[in-house]
Specification:
The complex is a heterodimer of chains A (331) and B (49). Chain A has 331 residues and is of the alpha/beta class. Chain A has eleven helices and eleven strands. The chains are: A alpha/beta (331), B little secondary structure (49).
Chain lengths: 331, 49
Protein backbone atom coordinates (compact mmCIF):
# COMPACT_ATOMS: atom_id res chain seq x y z
CA UNK A 1 0.00 0.00 0.00
CA UNK A 2 2.74 2.45 0.98
CA UNK A 3 4.65 1.75 -2.23
CA UNK A 4 1.59 2.21 -4.42
CA UNK A 5 0.71 5.44 -2.63
CA UNK A 6 4.27 6.64 -3.21
CA UNK A 7 4.05 5.67 -6.88
CA UNK A 8 0.78 7.57 -7.31
CA UNK A 9 2.25 10.60 -5.61
CA UNK A 10 5.42 10.58 -7.74
CA UNK A 11 3.43 10.00 -10.91
CA UNK A 12 1.10 12.87 -10.04
CA UNK A 13 3.98 15.25 -9.39
CA UNK A 14 5.62 14.38 -12.72
CA UNK A 15 2.29 14.29 -14.55
CA UNK A 16 2.78 10.67 -15.57
CA UNK A 17 0.67 7.56 -15.15
CA UNK A 18 1.50 5.46 -12.06
CA UNK A 19 2.11 2.51 -14.38
CA UNK A 20 4.97 4.45 -15.95
CA UNK A 21 6.93 4.84 -12.71
CA UNK A 22 9.30 2.10 -11.54
CA UNK A 23 11.29 2.36 -8.33
CA UNK A 24 14.95 1.43 -8.56
CA UNK A 25 18.08 1.69 -6.43
CA UNK A 26 18.96 5.05 -8.02
CA UNK A 27 20.03 6.85 -11.13
CA UNK A 28 22.71 4.36 -12.14
CA UNK A 29 20.33 1.42 -12.16
CA UNK A 30 17.71 3.46 -13.98
CA UNK A 31 20.20 4.51 -16.65
CA UNK A 32 21.42 0.93 -17.05
CA UNK A 33 17.87 -0.38 -17.37
CA UNK A 34 16.89 2.21 -19.96
CA UNK A 35 19.99 1.68 -22.10
CA UNK A 36 19.75 -2.11 -21.99
CA UNK A 37 16.05 -2.00 -22.78
CA UNK A 38 16.60 0.31 -25.75
CA UNK A 39 19.15 -2.14 -27.18
CA UNK A 40 17.53 -5.45 -26.28
CA UNK A 41 13.80 -4.68 -26.37
CA UNK A 42 13.49 -1.75 -28.76
CA UNK A 43 16.05 -2.78 -31.36
CA UNK A 44 18.45 0.12 -31.11
CA UNK A 45 21.81 -0.70 -32.68
CA UNK A 46 23.43 2.72 -32.45
CA UNK A 47 23.62 5.06 -29.48
CA UNK A 48 24.15 8.79 -29.73
CA UNK A 49 25.30 10.35 -26.50
CA UNK A 50 27.69 13.09 -25.40
CA UNK A 51 31.15 13.02 -23.86
CA UNK A 52 29.87 14.97 -20.85
CA UNK A 53 27.30 12.44 -19.66
CA UNK A 54 27.61 10.88 -16.22
CA UNK A 55 29.68 7.70 -16.11
CA UNK A 56 26.49 5.78 -15.33
CA UNK A 57 25.61 6.41 -18.97
CA UNK A 58 29.06 6.60 -20.58
CA UNK A 59 30.41 3.41 -19.04
CA UNK A 60 27.19 1.53 -19.70
CA UNK A 61 27.23 2.55 -23.36
CA UNK A 62 30.91 1.59 -23.61
CA UNK A 63 30.13 -1.77 -22.01
CA UNK A 64 27.51 -2.70 -24.60
CA UNK A 65 29.58 -1.26 -27.44
CA UNK A 66 32.51 -3.45 -26.40
CA UNK A 67 30.41 -6.50 -27.33
CA UNK A 68 30.40 -5.25 -30.93
CA UNK A 69 26.64 -5.68 -31.19
CA UNK A 70 26.02 -1.95 -31.12
CA UNK A 71 27.96 1.16 -32.05
CA UNK A 72 27.94 4.62 -30.51
CA UNK A 73 28.94 8.16 -31.36
CA UNK A 74 29.32 11.39 -29.47
CA UNK A 75 27.39 14.46 -30.45
CA UNK A 76 29.52 17.60 -30.81
CA UNK A 77 29.56 20.23 -28.10
CA UNK A 78 29.31 23.97 -28.62
CA UNK A 79 31.89 26.29 -27.08
CA UNK A 80 29.73 26.88 -24.02
CA UNK A 81 29.27 23.14 -23.42
CA UNK A 82 25.76 22.87 -24.86
CA UNK A 83 24.86 20.01 -27.15
CA UNK A 84 25.24 20.90 -30.83
CA UNK A 85 21.69 20.17 -31.95
CA UNK A 86 22.58 20.57 -35.64
CA UNK A 87 25.17 17.83 -35.25
CA UNK A 88 22.63 15.68 -33.43
CA UNK A 89 20.18 16.06 -36.31
CA UNK A 90 22.90 15.38 -38.89
CA UNK A 91 23.86 12.19 -37.07
CA UNK A 92 20.25 11.02 -36.78
CA UNK A 93 19.55 11.83 -40.42
CA UNK A 94 22.63 9.98 -41.55
CA UNK A 95 21.80 6.66 -39.97
CA UNK A 96 19.58 3.91 -41.28
CA UNK A 97 19.68 1.78 -38.13
CA UNK A 98 17.56 2.51 -35.09
CA UNK A 99 19.18 4.91 -32.62
CA UNK A 100 18.99 5.55 -28.92
CA UNK A 101 19.69 9.15 -27.98
CA UNK A 102 20.73 9.41 -24.33
CA UNK A 103 21.46 12.95 -23.16
CA UNK A 104 21.20 14.32 -19.66
CA UNK A 105 18.69 17.06 -18.83
CA UNK A 106 21.21 19.04 -16.77
CA UNK A 107 24.90 18.38 -16.64
CA UNK A 108 25.97 17.49 -13.11
CA UNK A 109 29.27 19.35 -13.32
CA UNK A 110 28.65 22.51 -15.34
CA UNK A 111 24.87 22.69 -15.03
CA UNK A 112 24.06 23.22 -18.72
CA UNK A 113 20.42 22.44 -19.49
CA UNK A 114 19.35 20.44 -22.52
CA UNK A 115 16.55 21.63 -24.78
CA UNK A 116 14.44 18.57 -24.06
CA UNK A 117 11.59 19.37 -26.39
CA UNK A 118 13.92 20.05 -29.32
CA UNK A 119 15.78 16.77 -28.77
CA UNK A 120 12.51 14.95 -28.30
CA UNK A 121 11.17 16.31 -31.60
CA UNK A 122 14.35 15.25 -33.40
CA UNK A 123 14.09 11.77 -31.94
CA UNK A 124 10.50 11.43 -33.08
CA UNK A 125 11.33 12.79 -36.53
CA UNK A 126 14.02 10.14 -37.03
CA UNK A 127 12.28 7.32 -35.11
CA UNK A 128 14.90 7.27 -32.37
CA UNK A 129 14.42 6.27 -28.75
CA UNK A 130 15.05 9.10 -26.28
CA UNK A 131 16.36 8.59 -22.75
CA UNK A 132 17.36 11.43 -20.45
CA UNK A 133 19.27 11.23 -17.20
CA UNK A 134 17.23 13.73 -15.19
CA UNK A 135 18.99 13.05 -11.91
CA UNK A 136 19.95 16.72 -11.48
CA UNK A 137 16.56 18.15 -12.41
CA UNK A 138 13.83 15.97 -10.90
CA UNK A 139 13.03 17.72 -7.63
CA UNK A 140 14.56 20.98 -8.87
CA UNK A 141 12.33 21.77 -11.83
CA UNK A 142 8.66 21.22 -12.51
CA UNK A 143 8.77 18.31 -14.93
CA UNK A 144 5.58 17.62 -16.84
CA UNK A 145 5.96 14.28 -18.57
CA UNK A 146 2.57 14.62 -20.22
CA UNK A 147 4.03 17.47 -22.29
CA UNK A 148 7.41 15.85 -22.86
CA UNK A 149 7.53 13.19 -25.55
CA UNK A 150 10.25 10.98 -24.13
CA UNK A 151 10.73 7.23 -23.67
CA UNK A 152 12.76 7.01 -20.46
CA UNK A 153 13.92 9.33 -17.69
CA UNK A 154 16.02 8.55 -14.64
CA UNK A 155 15.95 10.22 -11.23
CA UNK A 156 17.55 9.76 -7.84
CA UNK A 157 16.22 10.59 -4.35
CA UNK A 158 19.31 11.99 -2.66
CA UNK A 159 19.58 14.87 -5.12
CA UNK A 160 16.55 16.65 -3.64
CA UNK A 161 16.76 15.96 0.11
CA UNK A 162 15.47 12.42 -0.13
CA UNK A 163 17.22 9.22 0.92
CA UNK A 164 20.13 7.59 -0.84
CA UNK A 165 19.70 4.25 -2.56
CA UNK A 166 16.38 4.92 -4.24
CA UNK A 167 15.43 6.31 -7.60
CA UNK A 168 12.92 5.97 -10.36
CA UNK A 169 12.85 4.99 -13.97
CA UNK A 170 10.03 6.50 -15.99
CA UNK A 171 9.06 4.30 -18.92
CA UNK A 172 6.61 5.79 -21.38
CA UNK A 173 3.49 3.64 -21.58
CA UNK A 174 4.09 3.25 -25.33
CA UNK A 175 7.36 1.43 -24.63
CA UNK A 176 7.47 -2.31 -24.01
CA UNK A 177 10.49 -2.59 -21.72
CA UNK A 178 11.80 -5.67 -19.95
CA UNK A 179 13.74 -5.77 -16.69
CA UNK A 180 17.43 -5.46 -15.95
CA UNK A 181 17.11 -7.61 -12.82
CA UNK A 182 15.37 -10.98 -12.92
CA UNK A 183 14.03 -13.35 -10.29
CA UNK A 184 11.02 -11.64 -8.77
CA UNK A 185 7.72 -10.09 -9.71
CA UNK A 186 8.21 -6.78 -7.96
CA UNK A 187 7.46 -3.53 -9.76
CA UNK A 188 5.00 -5.37 -11.97
CA UNK A 189 7.72 -7.75 -13.17
CA UNK A 190 9.90 -4.84 -14.21
CA UNK A 191 12.44 -4.85 -11.37
CA UNK A 192 13.05 -8.02 -9.38
CA UNK A 193 14.10 -7.80 -5.74
CA UNK A 194 12.51 -6.73 -2.49
CA UNK A 195 11.55 -3.10 -2.72
CA UNK A 196 13.36 -0.46 -0.69
CA UNK A 197 10.16 0.39 1.14
CA UNK A 198 11.52 3.12 3.39
CA UNK A 199 13.51 4.63 0.56
CA UNK A 200 10.51 4.66 -1.74
CA UNK A 201 8.33 6.38 0.86
CA UNK A 202 11.16 8.86 1.44
CA UNK A 203 11.58 9.50 -2.28
CA UNK A 204 7.91 10.34 -2.67
CA UNK A 205 7.84 12.59 0.38
CA UNK A 206 11.00 14.41 -0.71
CA UNK A 207 9.53 15.04 -4.15
CA UNK A 208 6.28 16.30 -2.62
CA UNK A 209 8.20 18.77 -0.45
CA UNK A 210 10.48 19.82 -3.30
CA UNK A 211 7.58 20.63 -5.57
CA UNK A 212 5.51 22.32 -2.84
CA UNK A 213 8.43 24.65 -2.12
CA UNK A 214 9.86 24.91 -5.62
CA UNK A 215 9.08 28.60 -6.19
CA UNK A 216 10.59 29.85 -2.94
CA UNK A 217 13.53 27.44 -2.80
CA UNK A 218 14.59 27.93 -6.41
CA UNK A 219 14.34 31.72 -6.09
CA UNK A 220 16.51 31.62 -2.97
CA UNK A 221 19.14 29.33 -4.49
CA UNK A 222 19.27 31.45 -7.66
CA UNK A 223 20.08 34.44 -5.47
CA UNK A 224 22.84 32.49 -3.74
CA UNK A 225 24.41 31.51 -7.05
CA UNK A 226 24.18 35.04 -8.42
CA UNK A 227 25.67 36.45 -5.23
CA UNK A 228 28.57 34.02 -5.30
CA UNK A 229 29.23 34.77 -8.96
CA UNK A 230 29.34 38.50 -8.27
CA UNK A 231 31.52 38.14 -5.20
CA UNK A 232 34.01 35.87 -6.95
CA UNK A 233 34.32 38.23 -9.90
CA UNK A 234 34.83 41.13 -7.52
CA UNK A 235 37.43 39.51 -5.28
CA UNK A 236 39.24 37.04 -7.51
CA UNK A 237 40.68 38.56 -10.68
CA UNK A 238 41.22 35.94 -13.33
CA UNK A 239 38.45 33.66 -12.17
CA UNK A 240 36.25 32.17 -14.86
CA UNK A 241 33.24 29.91 -15.04
CA UNK A 242 32.79 26.72 -16.99
CA UNK A 243 29.62 26.11 -18.98
CA UNK A 244 26.73 28.44 -19.70
CA UNK A 245 26.68 29.56 -16.08
CA UNK A 246 24.52 32.65 -16.51
CA UNK A 247 22.38 31.30 -19.35
CA UNK A 248 20.54 28.04 -19.77
CA UNK A 249 22.02 26.48 -16.66
CA UNK A 250 20.94 24.68 -13.53
CA UNK A 251 20.48 27.21 -10.73
CA UNK A 252 22.09 24.91 -8.21
CA UNK A 253 25.51 24.61 -9.89
CA UNK A 254 28.38 27.06 -10.39
CA UNK A 255 31.54 25.61 -11.91
CA UNK A 256 34.51 27.88 -11.35
CA UNK A 257 37.86 27.95 -13.08
CA UNK A 258 40.90 29.51 -11.48
CA UNK A 259 44.21 29.93 -13.31
CA UNK A 260 46.74 27.12 -12.90
CA UNK A 261 49.38 27.94 -10.32
CA UNK A 262 51.28 26.25 -7.54
CA UNK A 263 48.63 27.46 -5.10
CA UNK A 264 45.58 26.60 -7.17
CA UNK A 265 46.71 23.04 -7.90
CA UNK A 266 45.86 22.08 -4.34
CA UNK A 267 42.71 24.19 -4.26
CA UNK A 268 40.16 21.50 -3.44
CA UNK A 269 42.45 19.98 -0.84
CA UNK A 270 42.99 23.35 0.81
CA UNK A 271 39.30 24.17 0.76
CA UNK A 272 38.67 20.86 2.49
CA UNK A 273 41.24 21.75 5.14
CA UNK A 274 39.27 24.95 5.73
CA UNK A 275 36.09 22.92 6.17
CA UNK A 276 34.62 23.71 2.77
CA UNK A 277 33.22 20.80 0.77
CA UNK A 278 33.22 21.28 -2.99
CA UNK A 279 33.91 18.97 -5.88
CA UNK A 280 36.27 18.98 -8.83
CA UNK A 281 34.02 16.68 -10.79
CA UNK A 282 31.37 14.05 -10.35
CA UNK A 283 31.24 12.68 -6.83
CA UNK A 284 30.94 9.22 -8.32
CA UNK A 285 34.47 9.50 -9.72
CA UNK A 286 36.09 11.32 -6.81
CA UNK A 287 39.56 10.04 -6.19
CA UNK A 288 40.20 9.64 -9.90
CA UNK A 289 43.43 11.34 -10.84
CA UNK A 290 42.75 12.20 -14.46
CA UNK A 291 40.56 15.21 -13.72
CA UNK A 292 37.02 15.83 -14.80
CA UNK A 293 36.02 14.16 -18.04
CA UNK A 294 33.42 16.90 -18.49
CA UNK A 295 35.90 19.76 -18.25
CA UNK A 296 38.35 17.86 -20.46
CA UNK A 297 35.62 17.34 -23.07
CA UNK A 298 34.98 21.08 -23.28
CA UNK A 299 38.44 21.40 -24.86
CA UNK A 300 38.99 24.82 -23.37
CA UNK A 301 41.93 26.88 -24.62
CA UNK A 302 42.87 27.85 -21.11
CA UNK A 303 42.06 25.05 -18.69
CA UNK A 304 42.12 26.28 -15.12
CA UNK A 305 41.54 24.39 -11.94
CA UNK A 306 37.85 23.53 -11.84
CA UNK A 307 35.74 23.62 -8.72
CA UNK A 308 32.06 22.75 -8.66
CA UNK A 309 30.06 24.71 -6.10
CA UNK A 310 26.56 23.32 -5.81
CA UNK A 311 23.92 24.85 -3.62
CA UNK A 312 20.80 23.88 -1.73
CA UNK A 313 18.15 25.66 0.31
CA UNK A 314 20.18 25.23 3.50
CA UNK A 315 23.16 27.25 2.27
CA UNK A 316 23.46 30.89 3.29
CA UNK A 317 24.92 34.17 2.04
CA UNK A 318 27.28 34.08 5.05
CA UNK A 319 28.64 30.76 3.83
CA UNK A 320 29.24 32.28 0.42
CA UNK A 321 31.09 35.17 2.07
CA UNK A 322 33.25 32.73 4.00
CA UNK A 323 34.08 30.70 0.91
CA UNK A 324 35.03 33.82 -1.06
CA UNK A 325 37.21 34.99 1.85
CA UNK A 326 38.99 31.63 2.04
CA UNK A 327 39.41 31.41 -1.73
CA UNK A 328 40.87 34.91 -1.83
CA UNK A 329 43.44 33.85 0.76
CA UNK A 330 44.28 30.64 -1.05
CA UNK A 331 44.83 31.97 -4.55
CA UNK B 1 40.37 21.42 9.48
CA UNK B 2 40.44 24.89 10.99
CA UNK B 3 36.72 25.59 11.19
CA UNK B 4 34.39 23.93 13.65
CA UNK B 5 31.43 24.16 11.24
CA UNK B 6 31.87 22.74 7.78
CA UNK B 7 30.42 24.50 4.77
CA UNK B 8 28.81 22.11 2.35
CA UNK B 9 28.70 23.21 -1.28
CA UNK B 10 28.52 19.76 -2.86
CA UNK B 11 24.77 19.38 -3.14
CA UNK B 12 24.90 18.17 -6.74
CA UNK B 13 26.51 15.06 -5.26
CA UNK B 14 24.18 14.57 -2.31
CA UNK B 15 21.73 16.81 -0.51
CA UNK B 16 21.09 16.51 3.21
CA UNK B 17 18.03 14.46 4.10
CA UNK B 18 15.06 16.60 5.10
CA UNK B 19 13.73 16.00 8.61
CA UNK B 20 10.21 15.73 7.24
CA UNK B 21 11.36 13.06 4.82
CA UNK B 22 13.01 11.11 7.60
CA UNK B 23 9.81 11.32 9.65
CA UNK B 24 7.83 9.88 6.76
CA UNK B 25 10.31 7.01 6.52
CA UNK B 26 10.24 6.11 10.23
CA UNK B 27 7.68 3.40 10.99
CA UNK B 28 7.18 4.66 14.54
CA UNK B 29 6.74 8.30 13.71
CA UNK B 30 3.22 9.73 13.74
CA UNK B 31 3.52 10.51 10.05
CA UNK B 32 5.23 7.27 9.13
CA UNK B 33 2.68 4.75 10.31
CA UNK B 34 1.58 3.97 6.79
CA UNK B 35 4.78 2.04 6.26
CA UNK B 36 4.02 -0.56 8.93
CA UNK B 37 2.86 -3.88 7.68
CA UNK B 38 -0.75 -4.26 8.87
CA UNK B 39 -0.15 -7.78 10.21
CA UNK B 40 3.45 -7.62 11.39
CA UNK B 41 4.07 -5.33 14.36
CA UNK B 42 7.54 -4.13 15.26
CA UNK B 43 9.43 -6.57 17.48
CA UNK B 44 10.12 -3.76 19.88
CA UNK B 45 8.55 -0.36 19.53
CA UNK B 46 11.16 2.32 20.12
CA UNK B 47 10.20 5.66 21.56
CA UNK B 48 9.52 8.53 19.22
CA UNK B 49 10.14 12.14 20.03
Amino acid sequence: MAIENARKSVAGLLNAHPGEIFFTSGGTESNNTAILSAIRDLGCTHIITSPIEHHAVLHTVAHYASRKTISFSFVKLLADGHIDLKDLEAQLAGREDKCLVTLMHANNEIGNLLSMNVVSALCRKYNAVFHSDCVQTVGHYPIDLSRMDIDFISASGHKFHGPKGVGILYVNSNVQAKPLLHGGGQERNMRAGTENLYGIVGFARALELAMERYEQDSAYIKKLKAYMTTQLLQHLPGIGFNGDYDGSCLYTVLNTSVPQSAKSEMLLFNLDIHGICVSGGSACSSGASQGSHVINALKLDDIGVAGRFSFCKYNTMQEVDKVVEVLTGLI
Amino acid sequence: MTNSKRIYFDNAATTPLDKEVLEAMMPTSPKGLAILHPFIPLAEKPGWQ
